[in-house]
Backbone:
């Protein structure tokens, strides 16, 4: 695919086929085939150690795949890694700022590194400083900023060259909730401006804010689609009840084949059933049998978290049987 | 067709200027970081000043005023005269008289004296009668360097005295072989003159290796290396951008040492300064390349620091900075040829003290150049723009 073709719009900006990576005996990423479309926010969701970072590093061209192939921004992963690097932005959970440089110096450095032309560099840096609301702190040493501000500066550094594709590897780890929300607003602003964003996370609320998602578990992609699609495909029905002795009721519910997932927080019980069974009826029956009084009961919306937990549990059970 | 060619040319030029701009960004960043790092900056300046003061003043290999006791069993005017002339050489300082070998032993053991001069009974009488008149010099062998020069002086004096007697007794037989030694380049044999130019090499080895090893290890430790690897920055640009500021730093340090050496110890630079700086550039680059190589092995700054120190020791021992290279066993000499410092010491001493020219020092420069190339190849083989 030529670069000209790639910029026409409807075509994918990332395509991988059976991308794999082994570290010795350990298979970190196994046969990952993905298509990420231009302009979307694509989330890669998975628990720690599922292979999210390994995948992102291969897509950035800093880790060689052991198998499979792929193109990113129209360049081949195996042969044109350096060309890819010119056209992507990358931000890790560690933010990678130079903590002994000022905000302004950090931005100027990355602008130079990414070849922002010298005559527009100063203007571009000032523009970004204004946009992220850091004009007043331009001469503050980056190490003295709070986590949320560091994250903003890091994002500004990663996008100083206005890349068409931005990789974010767990960008909100260790950041307070307010900053996280603001950060996601920025991500959506970038997306509206035409930037494609691939973001890894293990926060479920963040996953729901993505346009499309890939569930990754033990190096394999379990499902890909919009949050609504992946949730719908699990055919889960959820309910929340307030029950006495919720722990006991939950214990019994877990034994039932139609119950996919039960969790209890104090007196609140949340359960998901798969298929036709009505979760409220199922729970009411069990509670009656145990003599526990149900004071409240209402249907709940199945979330990405429900879908993810269900999928991971099923996958783990499958492997358990195989072993 | 021609339009296409123009595009290609401007494309190459654009690529070259983009590359230069990236390199420059790294260099500027490095200078800014260095400027913020007060401690490192202070080290860079303080180290040469402290070392030159220590080595120049304290570590003086010229032996003077060796504490000496005299056990005079002869007790004549002649024996006293001999002891006085021994003191007059400046090498000995007579601390007092003792009576017996037990007192000599006590004086040597306590360190009150390093040398004891023993006149046997009837020494002057034997001398007058033309008999052999031996003198005994008891020396403290635990400090061989001091003792060797002390013994030489005493032997020289004794020989001179016997010749004097011989000549007085038989003037006609006074045909003797006379050895006239002329010392060039450092006529007073002052050790500062020898040590200070060597210090240029030692301090550059110490600081240059360490600073580059730590500069990359720091990026790795803080996670910024990953950010650099993912950027369009090429390997060569990163390495050059990191090295350039430190080369300038190294040249500044060298200037500082030479100026201090001149002011404090009157150490001259006889030969061409331009030549010295040109060779120093190769030497500094070699050390930086070595630091870079260490940084590819080290995961943390602490490891990088330890490796640099580990490397420093053989440099001081084997390069000929403190101990004479010519006295080393052959395998050690071979080993020392692999150290850039060995060659730079010859260059810096040659230029500064002897006024050696380009042609005189070419073999040493070629050695250094070869080591530099080997190190660069080695470290770029190890340093990859990949994570694993």
Residues:
């Amino acid at each position: 695919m030529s670069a000209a073709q790639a910029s026409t719009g409807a075509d994918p900006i990332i395509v991988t086929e059976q991308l794999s990576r082994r570290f010795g005996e350990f298979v970190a990423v196994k046969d990952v085939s993905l298509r990420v479309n231009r302009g979307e926010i694509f989330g890669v969701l998975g628990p720690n150690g599922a292979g999210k970072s390994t995948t992102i590093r291969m897509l950035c061209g800093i880790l060689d795949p052991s198998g499979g192939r792929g193109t990113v921004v129209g360049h081949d992963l195996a042969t044109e890694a350096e060309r890819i690097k010119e056209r992507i932005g990358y931000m890790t959970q560690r933010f990678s700022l130079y903590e002994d440089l000022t905000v302004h110096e950090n931005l100027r450095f990355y602008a130079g590194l990414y070849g922002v032309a010298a005559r527009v560099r100063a203007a571009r840096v000032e523009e970004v400083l204004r946009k992220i609301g850091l004009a007043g702190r331009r001469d503050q040493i980056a190490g003295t900023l709070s986590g949320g501000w560091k994250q903003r500066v890091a994002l500004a550094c990663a996008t100083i060259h206005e890349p068409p594709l931005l990789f974010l590897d767990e960008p909100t780890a260790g950041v307070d909730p307010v900053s996280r929300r603001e950060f996601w607003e920025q991500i959506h602003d970038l997306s509206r401006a035409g930037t494609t964003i691939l973001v890894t996370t293990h926060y479920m609320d963040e996953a729901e804010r993505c346009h499309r998602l890939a569930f990754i578990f033990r190096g394999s992609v379990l499902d890909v689609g919009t949050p609504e699609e992946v949730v719908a495909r699990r055919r889960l029905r959820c309910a929340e009840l307030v029950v006495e002795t919720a722990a006991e009721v939950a214990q019994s519910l877990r034994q039932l084949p139609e119950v996919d997932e039960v969790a209890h927080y104090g007196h609140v019980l949340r359960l998901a059933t798969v298929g036709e069974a009505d979760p409220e009826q199922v729970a009411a029956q069990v509670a009656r049998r145990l003599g526990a009084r149900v004071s409240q009961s209402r249907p709940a919306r199945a979330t990405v978290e429900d879908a993810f937990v269900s999928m991971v549990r099923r996958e783990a059970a499958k492997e358990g049987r195989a072993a | 067709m021609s339009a296409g060619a123009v595009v290609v040319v401007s494309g190459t030029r654009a690529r070259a200027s983009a590359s230069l701009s990236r390199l420059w960004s790294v260099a500027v960043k490095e200078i800014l970081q260095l400027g913020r790092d007060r401690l490192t900056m202070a080290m860079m300046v303080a180290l040469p000043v402290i070392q030159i003061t220590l080595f120049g003043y304290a570590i003086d290999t010229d032996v003077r005023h060796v504490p000496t006791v005299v056990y005079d069993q002869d007790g004549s005017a002649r024996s006293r005269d001999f002891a006085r002339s021994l003191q007059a050489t400046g090498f000995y300082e007579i601390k007092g008289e003792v009576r017996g070998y037990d007192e000599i032993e006590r004086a040597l053991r306590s360190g009150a004296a390093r040398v004891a001069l023993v006149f046997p009974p009837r020494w002057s009488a034997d001398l007058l009668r033309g008999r052999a008149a031996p003198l005994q010099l008891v020396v403290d062998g635990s400090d061989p360097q001091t003792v060797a020069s002390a013994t030489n002086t005493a032997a020289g004096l004794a020989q001179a005295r016997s010749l004097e007697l011989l000549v007085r007794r038989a003037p006609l037989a006074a045909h003797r072989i006379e050895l006239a030694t002329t010392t060039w380049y450092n006529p007073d044999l002052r050790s500062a003159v020898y040590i200070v130019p060597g210090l240029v090499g030692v301090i550059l080895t110490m600081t240059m290796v360490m600073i580059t090893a730590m500069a990359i290890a720091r990026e790795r430790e803080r996670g910024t290396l990953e950010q650099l690897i993912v950027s369009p920055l090429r390997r060569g640009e990163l390495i050059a951008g990191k090295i350039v500021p430190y080369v300038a730093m190294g040249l500044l340090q060298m200037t500082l040492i030479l100026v201090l050496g001149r002011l404090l110890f009157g150490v001259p630079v006889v030969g061409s300064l331009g030549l010295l700086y040109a060779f120093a550039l190769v030497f500094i680059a070699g050390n930086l390349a070595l630091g870079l190589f260490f940084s590819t092995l080290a995961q943390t700054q602490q490891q990088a620091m330890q490796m640099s120190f580990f490397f420093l020791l053989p440099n001081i021992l084997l390069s000929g900075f403190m101990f004479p290279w010519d006295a080393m066993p052959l395998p050690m000499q071979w080993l020392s040829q692999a150290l850039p410092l060995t060659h730079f010491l010859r260059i810096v001493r040659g230029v500064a003290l002897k006024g050696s020219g380009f042609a005189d020092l070419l073999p040493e420069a070629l050695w250094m150049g070869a080591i530099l190339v080997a190190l660069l190849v080695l470290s770029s083989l190890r340093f990859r723009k990949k994570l694993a």
In short: Chain A has twelve helices and 15 strands. The longest strand of chain A covers residues 12-23. The radius of gyration of chain A is 23 Å. The interface with chain B takes residues 23, 57, 60-64, 82, 85-86, 88, 90, 92, 94-101, 105, 108-115, 118, 141 of chain A (CB under 8 Å).
